[in-house]
Amino acid sequence: MVGNRVQVGPWGGNGGVNPWTFMPDGRIYKIRISAGACVDSIRFTYIDHDNVKHHSETYGGDGGGPYKFTLGDDENLIAISGTVGEFDSYTVIRSLSFVTNKKSHGPYGTNEGTGFSLRVSEGRFGGFSGNYGAYLDSLSVILNYSH
Questions:
Q1: Is the pLDDT of residue 10 over 90?
Q2: Which of 47, 51, 79, 130 lies in disulfide reach of 139, CB 3.0 to 4.6 Å?
Q3: How confident is the model over 103-114, as pLDDT tens digits?
Q4: d(CA 119, CA 20)
């Protein structure tokens, strides 16, 4: 635990030459995913404390079909799940699903491989990290706790 943060994961493989961390200074507003046989990429939009929207870079390659969902003002992520498996001789994130306090989104990608899941009952989703190349190779969740 670093300060009031805990990293859970990573799930996925050891590939991907591009490490990334996304920790917004505000609330996550939209998540964009490109997926087909696996999760090719993920991108986040967040709203800062001045109500200005910011976009993360795209973490991953440009394959797969586009998907996106938006979180309402009173909507928060409470769970994430997915699968990890082999694709194109790499161990990658094969599928991702998100659950908010309002509804479920996904699965995006192909629901094959070894499953993982994280439901948050205490704290909140504060960000994500992982590695990517042509695909989303690995993913971790960063949880924030306030005392």
A1: yes
A2: 130
A3: 999 999 999 999
A4: 22
